[in-house]
């Protein structure tokens, strides 16, 4: 008797220096971020933003039978939140795809809502340069 392999999908999302790694597997619809339910995530604004891919997938009945566990590190709260959204969305698209790999209907819905749900944002902070207080601000020079 060969044991059936349970389907598990690993995905990741990045934003600035924050990294989120999500594991999607069969379950009861639980979503946990760093071992705590996403429903009690603080602050409220980041919780609402992190729940966006779940709301879209729930409306399309793609969330009821999966558990999502997310681990995050690095960056600040909003950077981590954006990384969480990307990791959740990518994981659900790959998990619900079946043999062909991707759930095209869910992918199109995510792209229509917000492209950053599936694509990492490459922007970074520009480093400070000499002769100034920041990346762009400089001391003025007068030649008179």
Could you characterize the architecture of this molecule?
The chain is of the alpha+beta class and 144 residues long. The chain has a single domain, classed as Ribosomal Protein S5, domain 2. Helices cover 31% and strands 21% of the residues. The chain contains 3 helices and 5 strands, in the order ββββαβαα. It has helices at 44-59, 77-95, 104-113, and strands at residues 8-15, 18-26, 31-33, 36-37, 66-73. A 5-stranded mixed sheet has the order 1-2-5-3-4. A hairpin with a 2-residue loop joins β1 and β2. α1 runs parallel beside α2 (77-95). The longest helix has 19 residues, at 77-95.
Question: Can you describe this structure in just a few lines?
Answer:
With 144 residues, the protein is of the alpha+beta class. The protein has three helices and five strands, in the order E-E-E-E-H-E-H-H.
Q: Which sequence of SSEs, written as H and E, runs from N to C?
A: EEEEHEHH
Number of domains: 1
Q: What would you call the shape?
A: elongated
The CATH topology is what? Ribosomal Protein S5, domain 2
Give the number of helices. Answer: 3
Uncertain parts: none
Helix content: 25-40%
Distance separating the two termini: 90 Å
Oligomer: single chain
Quick one: CATH class? Answer: Alpha Beta
Described by strand count, sense and barrel closure, the largest sheet is: 5 strands, mixed
Rg from Cα: 19 Å
> Approximately what portion of the residues adopt beta-strand conformation?
15-25%
Average pLDDT, to the nearest integer? Answer: 90
How many β-strands, per DSSP? 5
